[in-house]
Write a structure and sequence with these properties.
alpha/beta, 2,3-Dihydroxybiphenyl 1,2-Dioxygenase, domain 1, four-stranded mixed β-sheet, 23% helix, Glyas_Fos-R_dOase_dom
Length: 122
C-alpha cells in the first residue's frame, strides 16, 4: 500500500502554492511541513503527496514516464483540478475528457514539470 508519493522541486515555496490549491480542492491540507519538505493529505488516511528539495543537493529533475494520479469525486472536480493547476503555474498535458470506457481524466504538470493526472473512474 502506498503511504505517499514524493516529487522533487527546485522552488519549494512556488510548488507549495500549487499543491496547497490542489489539496484544498481535494479537501485536505498539509500533514507535514518542514524547511525542505511539505506533504499534503490526512495522516492515517488515503495516500498523500509530498514535495521536497532533493536530499543530495542536486537539482530536482522530472522522471520520464512518472505520473501521479489524483482521484477526483466526479467529472466536475476533474475540471476544477485542471483549472486550478493551470492557474497556479501548471501546464497542460491533456484537457479534461473521456479516456476510454468509464475513465474521465485531465493531465497537467506542476511548476517543476512533474506530471499529474486528475481522474474519475466508474
Amino acid at each position: 500500500m502506498i503511504g505517499y508519493v514524493t516529487l522533487g522541486t527546485n522552488d519549494l515555496q512556488r510548488g507549495a502554492r500549487f499543491y496547497d490549491a490542489i489539496a484544498a480542492e481535494l479537501g485536505v491540507g498539509r500533514m507535514m511541513d518542514f524547511e525542505s519538505f511539505i506533504a499534503w493529505g490526512v495522516p492515517g488516511g488515503a495516500p498523500g503527496i509530498g514535495l521536497t528539495r532533493p536530499f543530495d543537493g542536486k537539482a530536482a529533475t522530472v522522471g520520464n514516464g512518472v505520473m501521479v494520479a489524483l482521484e477526483a469525486k466526479d467529472e466536475d472536480q476533474v475540471k476544477r483540478l485542471y483549472d486550478i493547476a493551470l492557474s497556479h503555474g501548471g501546464t497542460d498535458e491533456g484537457a479534461p475528457g473521456p479516456r476510454g470506457e468509464g475513465f474521465y481524466a485531465a493531465y497537467f504538470r506542476d511548476p517543476d514539470g512533474n506530471k499529474l493526472n486528475a481522474f474519475v473512474a466508474g
